[in-house]
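Table S5 (text form). Sequence records supplied for joint modeling of the two-component complex.
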Amino acid sequence: MSLLAEIRKLLRKNMRQYGMYIALAVIIIIFSISTNGDFVSSRNISNWINQTGYIAVLAVGMTLILIIRHIDISVGYLCGFIGAISAVLMTQFYLPAWAAIVLSLLLGLCIGMFGGFLVAKIGVPSFVVTLAGMLAFRGLLLLVTEGTGTIIVSDEGYNALGNGFIPELGNVGGYHLLTLLIGALTIIFCIISQIRTRHNRIQYHFEVLSVPIFVIKLVFISAIIACIDLILAGFKGISWTLVIVVAIVAIYSFILNRTPLGRHIYGVGGNPQAAELAGINVRKITFIVFASMGLLAALAGILFTARSKSATPTAGTAFEMDAIAASYVGGVSANGGIGKVTGTIVGAFVMSSLMNGMNLMGIGISYQYIIKGAILVLAVIFDIHTRKAKKMG
Amino acid sequence: MDDYILEMKDITKEFPGVRALDRVNFKVKRGEIHCLVGENGAGKSTLMNVFGGVYPFGTYSGDILLNGKICRFRNIKDSEKAGISIIHQELALIPELTVYENIYFGHEIMSGKTIDWNQTLVKAKEILKKIGCKANPVDKVKEYGVGTQQLIEIAKALSKKVRILVLDEPTAALSEADSAHLLNLLRILKTHDVTCILISHKLKEVTQVADSITILRDGKTICSMDATKQKISENEIIRNMVGREINNIYPPKIPHKLGGVSFEVKNWSAFDPAKGRKILHNVSLCVRSGEIVGIAGLMGAGRTEFALSVFGNPYEYQISGNLFVNGRKVTYHHPDRAIHDGLSYMTEDRKANGLILIQDIKQNLTISNLRRISRNRFVLNENEEVRLANEYLKDMDIKAPSIDQIVGNLSGGNQQKVSLGKSLFIEPHTLILDEPTRGIDVGAKYEIYIIMNRLVAQGMSIIMISSELPEILGMSDRIYVMSEGKITGELKTSEANEEKIMTMATAS
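The corresponding structure-token record, covering 901 residues in total, follows.
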């Protein structure tokens, strides 16, 4: 097979995935030009990542929910509510930050489990359960912040989750040293793991990419990591938010792609009846997915509270919609059964880049919403189109 | 001079990369029952879709002549106006609406600007009576079984003043009695000046009702035969369908070596809370290793319910009785435990309950036993998965370019093989097959029979639920007959014949 033919085949096979990366690249280029490079400045990129963090975490949980053909519209106010609880625990019960965080995460998990119980065991439609949750958490958030109004969080360790950066080892010509090191290690790790996977596949006599394409792929991946890393190192380095997002994506990606649990989730989403007869406990899977959503909503709530250094009575408004939109833009099928965590993350960054970039350009918030809406519909149309094309071929 | 109501000339229809129809000629005489037969993928459905306006004029080449005039249908509405009605395998009724609402759905009887419901009801009653359908027009459609729903579809077609009625596999899901009724109805329709085109895999039916038979193979017309002049045998049809003569539709019986009882139920009864009635009454049966046990019966006899009730009871019937697997008394609350103990069930409805159509072959094969491809219980070994999936692809002779093929794009026969492969991936000792060859072509059927014989030769036990009597007789070592939730008889195959089974199946 010639080089070009192989590239064409790869492109066609992964059209949907690559389409999204290309879209993100195009958006970045457009904003960079229209803001005279401000968009890709180290400070803005760093800011953009932190801005996206809590939505990205929510969207990861939402991806699983959407894959199994459910929806959760309660997570926005759940975020706000848990964030406020963590603030209250620190400011009124004088708990240390770590204890407040652990308790908040546990509370989120319990709430998620309760929702999961109602959906999976009792059989209440998830839209109804989470609509009720949305109303209830909004009320709870108001209740918690009633006496005090906005709760200012002064714990620096806690706030670092949303604003802080990994420690500095030293400064090399204006670059953050530890960030550079981590970047280099990541690249090496990537290359080694790719080579090992390829080697493994060859041992099994499976089809692998030809050597030139494989090298191009490695160089490309390395270049992108290096690029991001350099930009970040030029400001204050890697933020704690980024660390958390990467960890969450790694864990959830691993679960979805490499474990029986992940396969079961896709199975339930693809055809629940068939899944049940294949010995998959659909209720258990549903319960687990909602529980995980609760946990991630709590984490997102903590990230948001830390980022704004305060808990406000309106925190979390419409976060769930951003998370759902990010998932759909990221390639989750509206019919369930299909979707990837990595795609969702790209979707989240696409959506937040629009906000960030248009803010820099000085475009009003009203237009931002309209454009976001249009992008969402376009992404889903593109999705349907590519899937149809695949079916015909 | 023959009077043709329909002539399709040199119809060619191409999809990207595939020529589905290649200069097909198809002529139907006025007032006849014309059977269209061919293996799955031969182009029957495509031809009917061209005819019915699903593929509009311009997307195919060739001419459609209706009553000698060229027709150019832009959509289904156009073809319906011309008096053509197609009843698809998947019925298009709306379950929550009543029978009479369904019959006039889409072409409501109006009085002024509003629907005249009284008139609708009167007309619907007339049509139902004409076709001998006993459904009460004010009941909801969902209250009736597939057989009656099929009749309601025909009533709907008649209400549209149909001239040509196309039935795509109408009897695939019907019991023998319902099928007989339906075929009889086709003969009655003939007297009402309705021409019928019948697509069917059941060749026995075809030879019974056909006035003419057209055979398609690989998108080409192989031949058209006039059945009014001479009797056409099933073998002759099969020979033309597959291009070779299959003397035996069933592989030769090798006497199986029988082992111990691997699966047994005693006094097994079940109550379905959703239906509010008892669906199984004191069922007792057993199967030994190396044995194929057939369960015959009519649709609705409770055979599928029986299979599900022993296979982890996913629909949560209230059960009494004892279940023994390899001599051990067991109770299952979920299919996962049944699978864990080496039971496997292949559903009768591969699309709804068997396969995950949006996933690829590999994922479908392995999903019910991921432990087999896990390094430990928690991490999958994808390389091992690919290796095993390829092995199954070869063993089952699934015709697909690779294991990455999306299952929804495969033909019915290949989907069924994937479904069977999936059931076997759990390495069961007892396999329950529910209508293992429903809606698939003769060639694929034969291959599945070969696989079944190979499995029992390796010592597996197979329980085969089937509505096709020849299949029951051709494959089983022993036969149970069910009727209305009870076992009404047990026969050795050597003593059994179709009449005996039917007598038991209609007993109560």
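Note: Chain A touches chain B through 30 residues (CB under 8 Å).
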